[in-house]
Structures are given as C-alpha cells and as structure tokens.
Amino acid sequence: MIRVALDADLQAITDIYNEAVIAGGSTADLTACTLEQRRKWVEAHEPRHDFPVVVMENENGKVIGFGSLSRFHSRAGYDGVVELSYYITTSERHRGRGTEMVSSLIAKARKLGNRKVVAVIFAKNSGSVALVNHFGFTCYGVFPQACWDGRNFSDVSYWYLDL
C-alpha cells in the first residue's frame, strides 16, 4: 500500500535513505542523514498536496520504501515539471516494489496536472535506468563524472516523461 507519509514514518524514511547513502551509487549524499535532516527534507515539499512524500508499506504494515514529487525548479516557468525520486529498502528490491512506487508517483503527477516528470539517476544504476525505460521515459542527457559518491565519480543521467 502506498500512502502519504506521516511524522511517524520519519525514522523509517531516514533508515531507508541511509541504506542508499551507505551503499553508494544512488544518491549524492556522502554521509548518513539525521532524523532532523530528513524531517526538513519532508517539510520542504510544500505545498504538500502539490509535492507529496509517500511511503510504501508491506503486507504487515511495515514501511519498506518512500518516494516523492519535488519542485523541479523554483522559477515559475518550470511550473508543471516535477522531479520523481524513490527508495526501496534493500530486502524488498527486485520484487516489483519500485515499479509500483514509480507507477503511483506518475499517476499522482498526472492527477496534479503536471506536464512532465523528470528523474535524475546515476547512469550505472541499471535497475533504475531499466525502470524509467519501462515507463517510457526519454534520456535527455548524461553529465559525465558529475557526482562523487564517496568512492568514485559517476555519470548522472537525466530522464523525462511527457504526461
């Protein structure tokens, strides 16, 4: 089940995000985030009805992933373009959870009247690249060695979907 994130979900969101930070290859953060940092990240999604943060629960009600639609750019000309991001806990990957999350976020972006969804992905993240391809995203560029992930410089790919 995917639902709007609550304050009670902040620890799970932080833990899942920090798994990705520690593993490397999917986020530009180099050190684990605190609960307060994740709280500020969630609170920055304002207005919340236009820029939702959601969580995914498993069959037992445990939070196993989260996702968001974020403002792509603060300038008014970019209104209607949102950035999609998602993280699934390691033990729940390769079970269709990412597909379910991305599908839900795309549907939400459409319902909110957006015209484009953007995804920024480490080019070597084959799982996420395959996922956005599955949904018909188009790669509009690769920024070579744009991001240091704590171990290596990585190329970053930029994707969009017309809604």
Automatic annotation (TrEMBL):
Protein's UniProt keywords contain Transferase: yes
Mention any Pfam family matching this sequence: Acetyltransf_3
The organism's place on the tree of life at top rank: Bacteria
Transferase among keywords: yes
Keywords noted in UniProt:
Acyltransferase, Transferase
The protein's matches in Gene3D superfamilies, at most eight in alphabetical order, are given as:
3.40.630.30
PROSITE patterns tied to this protein: GNAT
What is a GO molecular function of this protein?
acyltransferase activity, transferring groups other than amino-acyl groups
Question: Taking every annotated instance into account, which residue ranges of this chain make up the domain N-acetyltransferase?
Answer: 1-163
The entry's protein name is: Phosphinothricin acetyltransferase
